[in-house]
Every structure is written in C-alpha cells, then in structure tokens.
Amino acid sequence: MNTIFKTFKIILYCMISILMLCCKNEKSGLLTIYVDTDAETPLALSEITSSLDSVKLELTDKSLIKNPFRIVCTDDYILFVETKAMMLFDRSGKFIRQIGSIGQGPGEFTGIWDATIDTKENKISLITHGLKRMCYDFNGNLLTEYQSVSSAPINNLYFVNNRLLLLCETPVKQNDIRKNETYLYTLTSDLKDIDTIFIRSIDHKGIWLHPYKDFITHDGEKTYLYYSDISKNCFLIDTLFQLNNKEVVANLHMDFKNKGLSPNGEKEINIFTIYRNSRYVFAFYNAKNQYYYFCHDTKTGKSYNMKDGYKDDIYTGEKVKIRPLNSDANQFYFLHTEIDDTTLEEPNPTLYIGRLKK
C-alpha cells in the first residue's frame, strides 16, 4: 500500500510540474515550432497568397539586372540594389536611371553594403564599402554625403515603421579576446545616429558576408529581428526576437531536428533567416548542403518544408524563392526570367510581388 501511495504521489507531482511548465510557457508567449529537416512537404504559392502581380522590367544597356541583394518598392518606383549599381524603375517596369556611380570622388562609391528608401522623406539612403553614408533623391541628385565614424565592416540598412535603422557588426578586442559585437542604430533622415541598442556579443570567427539581409521585418504592428551566425563551429541561433522600444525580447523558437555538429566538426544546420507576420512563420536554412524553405501556418497549425523553393502555381509553374518586400512581412517578391524559343537576347527578369493571406 505504501508503495502504491508513493507511486501515486510521484505521478501527481510530475503532473503538477508539467502543468506548471505549460502555464509558464503559455504566459511567456514564446511559440516553439518544430522543423523536421528530413521532411519534404511542398507548398504552392496559391495556398498562402491573396494576390500576385507581375512587373516586366525593361532592358537597356544601363539596366541589366545581374544579382540584386535588395529590392525596394514605393507607390511610384522600384529600386534594385547590387554591389556596384542602383537601378531605378517605375512601377510599370520602365527603366528611369541609375542612382550614383562607381568611383572615389564626391557622390561616387566603390561598392554598396546596403541601401533602402526613406518613403517619409523620399530619399534613397545607402552605406558604401568605404563606410560613407549617402542620400540621393529620385532624380539622382546627391543630398547627403559624409564619412561614417563607425568602423563596422557589416552594415544592413532598413526603413521600417517610419524609422531608418542600421544593423552593424564589427570585430572588437577585449583583454586579448576577440569578439563580434552587433548594434542597432536609429538614424535621422540624413543618416546621423540618434539612438543605439546593443544586440549581442559572440566569439569572433571572422566576418562572414551574409547573402541575405532580411534580418529586420515588420508586420504592421510588431518589428522583428533575426541575426544569424553560420560560421563554422558556432552555436545555432534558432530564435526570432521582437523589438520593443530599447528591449530585444524572444518571440519564437524554432526546434530543428538533427541540429548540432557533425563528426567532422561542421554545423548540421545553418539558418540564413527567420521572419514572421501575424499568421505565417518563414525560415530559409541549409541542412547537409541542401537548401530548404520552411513555412508554418499558425492559423492551421500546418508546417511545410521545401527543397529549393515554393511551387509557383499562379504564373511560372516553377519553384521560386520568395523574400519579404520592403522588410514588410505581409508582402513578398521573387524574380523569374522568362525565355522561349523566339528569344534572341536574354531579357531582364520579371518581378513578382505578392501579398500573403490573413
């Protein structure tokens, strides 16, 4: 009888502990999403898209689109940002002009770290490889140019919720220990620092040039931050954070299967980005040298894990790679080049702009 009673007490204690833990997780509001990296569950764009528009981009000798790392749209313009060029189109796809030029003189740049459009002030803002901060108007006139006092080699620029934000990472040395420190700056319309938030400090593994810059997104109500580190032997960053004034708080956690290091010391999972809106959670990651796109629908509870992209069953019939447009997690874009047997010269890609279902 005593044994039965003790067993009952242990079971009861465990049940109470589990209940308390569940209540704690519910109060914290931290959503945890499981990602089965071995699964292949396709998702068609029509299942998550409320509208999808196409813009055929004019090709001229000055508007050849090669490899844009940032695309920004306003009601009137589309800006394509590449390492060595910025090309401005109207919303119908007609090429207008290049913004700025390559060089080392006034109004010129040797390369572009990042650029965005301040829609409040109607300015094109950029950070150059020489760490100059520059602003242009849509006619290509230089408005602002000065040398940044920051020595941060990694700079990511965003215009989110009517604020101009600069996310910087730089190596520092503290007591003979090298670290990478990340800060988020709020800027004025002429790119002056007015506020700073410390994001993180991690062991220095070198500065890695990230192919994506979708680290800050906004869904109309909340602003989110995800800043990855996919260097060798570094920890897995699998948490999306929310920016609340000067606080950076955890918003959701992604539980990846097979995470950790392989026997030869390589990371099994490399996450490039995580972002979300009120309904969908998205991720782009690499697992065992295979690229995956992940989508979780919080409304239905369903998750989708796709090799190489989403099935575009609306226009192209092919797999496409979507990214948030203007750091707006409610919109997305992708590029697709349409070639047929009658094409004599490869055209510029067509830009597709979509809006997600609510």
Low-confidence stretches: 1-27
- Total count of strands: 29
How do the SSEs run, as a string of H and E?
Answer: HEEEEEEEEEEEEEEEEEEEEEEEEEEEEE
The CATH architecture designation is 6 Propeller
Mind telling me the C-alpha Rg? Answer: 23 Å
Shape field = globular
Would you tell me which CATH topology applies? Neuraminidase
Largest sheet: 5 strands, mixed
Please indicate the count of domains.
Answer: 1
Strand order of the largest sheet: 1-20-19-18-17
Spatial gap, N to C terminus: 57 Å
What is the tally of helical segments?
1
> Helical amount among residues, as a percent range?
under 10%
Determine the structural class based on helices, strands and strand pairing. mainly beta
How much of the sequence is in beta strands? Answer: over 45%
Average pLDDT, all residues: 86
Briefly, what CATH class? Answer: Mainly Beta
